[in-house]
Amino acid sequence: MGLLPDLFTLSILINCFCNVGRVCDGFVVLGEILRWGFSPDVVTLTSLIKGLCLENRGTEATRLFKKMVVFGVRPDVTTYGTLITGFCRTGNTSIALRIHEEMVNRNGERGFICKPNIVCYSSIIDGLCKDGLVDRVKELFIEMKSRGIKPDVVVCNSLIYGWCFVGNLEEAKGLFIEMVDQGLQPNLLTYNTMISGFCKEGNIEEANGLLEFMIQRGFQPNTFSYNTLMDGYCLLRRFVDARELRIFMESKGCMPDVVSYTTLINAYGKNRKLENAMSMYKEMVSKGIRPTVYTYNGLLTSLFLSNKVGAAQKLFDEMKLSNFAPNSFTYNILIDGLCKNGRVLEAAKWFRALEYYEFKIDIEIFNSLIDGLCKKGMLEIALELFHKLPKKGLMPDVVTYSILTHGFCKKGKLQNAYDLLSDMEKNGCAPNVVTFNTLMRGFLQNNEAAKVVELLHKMKDRIVMPDESTFSIVVDLLLKHENYHECLELLPSFPPVQKSTRS
Description:
Helices cover 70% and strands 0% of the residues. The protein has helices at 7-19, 23-35, 42-54, 58-67, 77-89, 93-105, 118-130, 134-146, 153-165, 169-181, 188-200, 204-216, 223-235, 239-251, 258-270, 274-286, 293-305, 309-321, 328-340, 344-356, 363-375, 379-388, 398-410, 414-426, 433-445, 449-461, 468-480, 484-490.
């Protein structure tokens, strides 16, 4: 047409390329801009920075940000916000925080002032909340308000999520009430986050009350709202309430999905309610809802817990025929279920098959088989598996060591069991109360009171708090000891249990 594109046209083109993940083409256009004698402006360079951030090329984005001055361009609040959002999106919140601090502290140094806006604060607050760093978030929130920036629903949602994430529901509730009082309308995400927080802490009545409040305020709960509340009921074993909620949601025109049914199936399965789990599965299939691998995992757990090994194996075969690829958790359920039902050799065959097909076996699968072997008295084979772990690129965890400790104690090899304690600490694996209880029970049965006392002191030194089983062991120790008072004097004093910040 005989027309040359101007800077505005080329900047739009760069932005388009960057938005669709073609930042390299964006830089080609930048070359054309320079070749035709145009000077790129802040919009042009900010688009390229955004493109680099979207491709997780944060280092290059930072380099371009610093080179802006070469082009005689001053970064504006959008540029800073783009870079901060990019780093937060990739989990590099600490870098984003440094950029924010530079923005705040260096204002005016280069002859211009650039104040952070709601976007900058929103991105960093969200990133810090996802990292669980809520104390730092609170400082930023106060700083933001002190600068006259009113929090919006996005910032408040991030903060509420952060408080719920660390179990501080009082702070989350306080902010929610503050939002309502100040006329800032909570949205569906706000309500769902609060409901999820209450359910995780077992405060089901407050979660249910919030659901009702939400409906009164004109919000219709979605499937996630109901599924979260249903899961909360299941965690408290209130299965009747959970099932009634599923019926209620359907009556409100919110159809249950695969997560709704899988939540109930998993809960029924873990609590040995096989008939209920199978009933939910059949109902789900009859409604044309396709199960997922997690649905099958819940059913397999239920069948193995009910000692229905044949039915579990049949379901496993059905799962594969239906083109559902078993995941690591599925194989762990299979191997663990076979072991707990005394079918250790079958479990070992499956384990060998996984090795043959080079399936990535995780530590949980190893633990299940090692546990099965130890309970069958096959300690030598269990130890072979244990020593195989480093070759598989795995490190034994506290569960692995506790299983082997129990195996040695059962065989009367107390010194070997005790040596495992040093071995696990040497490998950076901290023993827990189960490890100590297993060892102490073994030495107590062998009438080695001094070792039990020694282990109690080790527990105290490592700040491992005793549980009910520990207290039972101590009572048995005192009853067995010839001189009750002398033994009592030797016992360590544990610090009082700190009250949880959870509601």
